[in-house]
Automatic annotation (TrEMBL):
Keywords: Endoplasmic reticulum, FAD, Flavoprotein, Lipid metabolism, Membrane, Methylation, Microsome, NADP, Oxidoreductase, Phosphoprotein, Transmembrane, Transmembrane helix
Protein name: Flavin-containing monooxygenase 5
Enzyme nomenclature, EC number: 1.14.13.8, 1.6.3.1
Record keyword Transcription regulation present: no
Known function: Acts as a Baeyer-Villiger monooxygenase on a broad range of substrates. Catalyzes the insertion of an oxygen atom into a carbon-carbon bond adjacent to a carbonyl, which converts ketones to esters. Active on diverse carbonyl compounds, whereas soft nucleophiles are mostly non- or poorly reactive. In contrast with other forms of FMO it is non- or poorly active on 'classical' substrates such as drugs, pesticides, and dietary components containing soft nucleophilic heteroatoms. Able to oxidize drug molecules bearing a carbonyl group on an aliphatic chain, such as nabumetone and pentoxifylline.
Species per Swiss-Prot/TrEMBL record: Tegillarca granosa
Subcellular location per the Swiss-Prot or TrEMBL entry: Microsome membrane
Family: Belongs to the FMO family.
Main location: membrane
Protein origin, superkingdom: Eukaryota
One Pfam family here: FMO-like
Extent of the signal sequence: none
Known catalytic reactions: NADPH + O2 + H(+) = H2O2 + NADP(+); hexan-3-one + NADPH + O2 + H(+) = propyl propanoate + NADP(+) + H2O; octan-3-one + NADPH + O2 + H(+) = pentyl propanoate + NADP(+) + H2O; octan-3-one + NADPH + O2 + H(+) = ethyl hexanoate + NADP(+) + H2O
InterPro entries from the UniProt entry: FAD/NAD-bd_sf (IPR036188), Flavin_mOase (IPR000960), Flavin_mOase-like (IPR020946), Flavin_mOase_5 (IPR002257), FMO-like (IPR050346)
Amino acid sequence: MKKIAIVGAGCSGLAAIKCCLDEGLEPVCFEREIEVGGLWNYTENPKLGKGSVYKNCVINTSKEMMAYSDFPPPEQFPTFMPHSYVLKYFKLYAENFGLYKYINFETSVQNIRPTLDYKETGRWEVVTCKKGHNEVTETFDGVLICTGHHTYPNMPTFRGLDVFNGQVMHSHSYRENSKLTGKRVLVVGIGNSAVDIAVDASHTASQVYLSTRRGAWVISRKGFWGLPADAMANSRFVFSLPKSFLGWGVEKMSNLIFDHEGFGLKPKHGAFQAHPTINDELPFRIMVGAVRVKPNIYEFTENKVRFEDGSCEEIDVVVFATGYNYKLSFLDKSVTCIDKNNTCLYEYMFPPELEHPTLGIVGLVQAIGAVMPISEMQCRWYTRLIKGLVNLPSKEEMYEDIDKKRDEMSKLYISTQRHTIQFDDHITTFWIEYMDEIANKIGVKPDFKKLFLDDPWLALRCIFGPCFPAQYRLHGPGKWNGAKPCIQDAMKRCMSPNRAKILPKNAELRTKNNV
């Protein structure tokens, strides 16, 4: 039995443990904290090197679209889960599949390097240190790095920032709005974290300013009839349409919610040239004056901020929601390196120079959609590779694929810290194309010809309905007998918590007459 080291017990690490067990491998997971969940394990105090969420954070993807492919969330869980429910889901997953016994808590990974006989064996030396103990070096047949990429804050520099007397923090450190009561707050950025924090802070702060260089297309979590927008949009049929048409449609739908130009948020780029921002409250908070949109910062003074349009505002607190620097400090530099968030990884997972596909980096993608199903799919691919059941292409082919994606990304995306690890050839596919690409390598992509013959209604549902992760459990290795009912009942489970009890007709009138 091959022994696999797994770094991190967040959403990707848990999937890695489960996938190893499914393929008869021995997982040994190292987690620095005392509990699973990674980013979603909320703590009052931020820690450098650990992802974080704030107290009122709610996930942007609906529960069925973020689910692992063979473990749907409980029906009673909210459609869009607050961070506490996301953590509960991960704990349920770990308990259901018996993953806890493979996790070494309070154990940090110090170094990962190839063994002296790596060329022959493909094995790795992993140096770990449990809290209060000495370092330990062990040899593993493979390594899966599942540490995420929201761990090291990227702090920008501005003229005069060093003389500013107010409080300065990164969104990584933001926890709750009560600490901003009565203060004038400037949030810098226009991504999901920036807008979420601006909205959250606006409920207690005396005034919130939202500074953006480019603007953004802001979309809603909910679609028509109150259904989850990500589930409605993430279908194979939708993304078979021309990309230009889809981009036009997103821009029109965004402007139906609120006029982006009138609200000072219309960007110069198209809807699919940058990662969209998801928020439902921002337009209303702008309309009531709680949030005011500002252009880019020109300079700081001791207690004020001057913007590029010449306006100047007194500011007490600045929150930089300006992304993260991605680091793998424990990984030997001979393996791979990340420079200004630029990576050289085949399918954003494998260093192409390695002679053996025994080390993989999981979840290092910026998906328009949930990372959990992607991480799970990557781990399923890795376990098949390390068992020799599938193979990677040649080094030349891998580099050709990497260069192709880089060229397409440079043409498609505006250049920001945020998009350098974007994975998709076409951002318009959300994650369907990437999922299908990896699924096809291991034989778990839905076989629609066979599906139409066996169950035409299910085939139509998979093509025209939401691409729920359970679609990748219908066929091939890891086939799950519960996949079909999971797909059929997914939308019902998703919307079930929202159903309120409806009184019978005229019940309210009878009640009033009886009083």
